[in-house]
């Protein structure tokens, strides 16, 4: 009887190798990829022109294709909010709740295998590779709190861990797995070469934007100024785009840095107040926050004008549009760079 | 057979793929689905998803900033 395993596929090299190692042992493998909204995958590449040259492929799909396996992409955006907002085990260096995230994903994958009649789970984790979630002490926590217990096989470091049920039952052989540990990538690269994989993705840091310091600063700013730890999918997408400038608690500006971002932000003009330069070439900006009063509109326009081709001009004409409303035209003097305090920039 | 229309405009990858995946799942083999997207990433991702899952791309059209992709469900396992 062919045993079936679901592999958590992030799109990186480790999950590719782990799944392949199981296929080598005759296991039928299918992939699961979770979409949290914070995944680094594609998004910014698709938005920013400067990244156009980079391949826009989805790495998880690419991995599945290399392996010749099915990939189930699961949207967990809603349920994942609780993980980001209230992580029981806390955050890592930034707003990354890695341990809670792992527990959540493994538990979702565990429910999935029970539902679909699969036998066990596979992950590409390596002990000691990431400071928070991939330590030897945290592995039993994940096993326990996710409910997956001894059904999680980590082929890349299995020899350093207690035997799992698939090994004890004889579904897979421990001897054919590996003993990788620590941060060195050399053993993985050697194994990739042995399996004949090249051109794989090598994400630096983590698998999502929450490990990014700049991103976390912007997310924290959003929570602080809203007075509540809350977000929706548009919020977290917009945190990936543009220059964010906050002149007051009431609002911030999201100013496109180039054409691709302008195009992307214009898709949000019905939901947000927006500002566009008219007399000079310039960026589109969205206003996130309260409905602006006339004084705030002038201030916001002066800031946006600063980032237009008319930044040296005496007057710049701009158009301010309420969300889904009639635009109004304004003439303002661009705010000089030195009048925009550094603290307004959320970078 | 009627073609199912899926609107994935303004969604960024992999959301259009998820929309396509979830709308195709309950349909009978042979059904065609037309998905409209604005993220250029779909040009790679949707064909890749179809290859993995054994479905066919019937047509890809670009109209201004929109991509119209017609897919046929060929596989039910
Ligand atoms: S980097 Fe992001 S996706 Fe990866 S474990 Fe941490 S929180 Fe989860």
Structural description of this entry:
- The complex is a heterodimer of chains A (347) and B (77).
- In chain A, the strands form two sheets. In chain A, strands 11-10-8-9-7-6-12 form a seven-stranded antiparallel beta sheet.
- In chain A, helix 1 crosses helix 8 (186-195).
- Chain A has helices at residues 13-24, 43-47, 59-67, 77-85, 98-116, 138-146, 165-168, 186-195, 213-226, 233-238, 259-266, 294-306, and strands at 4-8, 28-35, 71-75, 120-122, 152-153, 243-248, 251-255, 273-277, 284-289, 316-321, 328-332, 345-346.
- Chain A is built from twelve helices and twelve strands.
- Chain A has two domains: 4-208, HUPs (Rossmann fold, 3-Layer(aba) Sandwich); 241-344, no CATH class.
- Chain A is of the alpha/beta class.
- In chain B, 29% of the residues lie in helices and 35% in strands.
- Chain B contains two helices and four strands, in the order E-H-E-H-E-E.
- In chain B, strand 1, helix 1 and strand 2 (32-37) form a beta-alpha-beta unit.
- Chain B is α+β, with helices and mostly antiparallel strands.
- The mean pLDDT of chain B is 93.
- Chain B has helices at 15-24, 42-53, and strands at 3-8, 32-37, 56-63, 66-72.
- Chain B has a four-stranded mixed beta sheet with strand order 1-2-4-3, covered by helices on one side.
- The interface between A and B is medium-sized, with 28 and 22 residues.
- Iron/sulfur cluster binds at residues 96-98, 101-102, 133, 206-208, 210-211 of chain A.
Let me know the CATH homologous superfamily of chain B. TusA-like domain
Q: Helical percent range of chain B?
A: 25-40%
Poorly predicted runs of 5 or more residues of chain A? none
Net shape of chain B: globular
The helix content of chain A is: 25-40%
């Amino acid at each position: 009887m062919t045993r079936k395993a679901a592999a958590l596929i992030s799109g990186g090299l480790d999950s590719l190798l782990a799944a392949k190692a199981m296929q080598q042992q005759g296991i039928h493998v299918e992939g699961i990829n979770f979409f949290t909204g914070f995944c680094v995958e594609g998004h910014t590449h698709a938005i920013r022109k400067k990244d156009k040259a980079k391949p826009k492929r989805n790495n998880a799909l690419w991995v599945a294709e290399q392996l010749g396996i099915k990939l189930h992409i699961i949207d967990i955006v809603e349920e994942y909010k609780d993980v980001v907002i209230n992580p029981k085990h806390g955050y890592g260096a930034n707003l990354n709740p890695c341990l809670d995230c792992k527990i959540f994903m493994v538990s979702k994958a565990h429910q999935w295998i029970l539902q679909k009649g699969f036998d066990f789970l596979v992950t590409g984790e390596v002990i000691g590779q990431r400071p928070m979630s991939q330590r030897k002490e945290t592995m039993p926590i994940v096993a326990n709190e996710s409910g997956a217990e001894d059904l999680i096989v980590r082929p890349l470091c299995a020899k350093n861990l207690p035997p799992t049920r698939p090994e004890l039952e004889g579904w897979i052989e421990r001897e054919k797995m590996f003993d990788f540990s620590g941060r060195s990538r050399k053993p993985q690269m050697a194994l990739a070469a042995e399996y004949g994989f090249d051109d794989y993705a090598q994400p630096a840091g983590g698998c999502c934007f929450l490990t990014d310091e700049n991103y976390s600063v912007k997310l924290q700013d959003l929570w602080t100024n809203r007075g509540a730890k809350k977000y929706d999918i548009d919020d977290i997408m917009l945190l990936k785009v543009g220059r964010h400038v906050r002149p007051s608690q009431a609002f911030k500006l999201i100013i496109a840095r180039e054409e691709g971002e302008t195009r992307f932000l214009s898709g949000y003009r019905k939901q947000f107040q927006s500002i566009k330069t008219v007399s000079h070439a310039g960026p589109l900006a969205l206003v996130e926050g309260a409905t602006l009063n006339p004084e705030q509109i002038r201030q916001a326009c002066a800031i946006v004008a600063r980032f237009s081709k008319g930044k040296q001009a005496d007057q710049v004409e701009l158009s301010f549009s309420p969300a889904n409303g009639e635009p109004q035209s304004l003439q303002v003097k661009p705010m000089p760079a030195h009048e925009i305090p550094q603290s307004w920039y959320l970078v | 057979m009627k073609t199912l229309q899926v609107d994935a405009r303004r969604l960024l990858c992999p959301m259009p793929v998820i929309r396509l995946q979830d709308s195709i799942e309950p349909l009978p083999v042979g059904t065609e689905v037309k998905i409209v997207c604005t993220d250029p990433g779909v040009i790679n991702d949707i064909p890749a998803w179809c290859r993995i899952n054994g479905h066919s791309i019937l047509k890809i059209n670009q109209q201004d900033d929109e991509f119209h992709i017609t897919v046929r469900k060929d596989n039910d396992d």
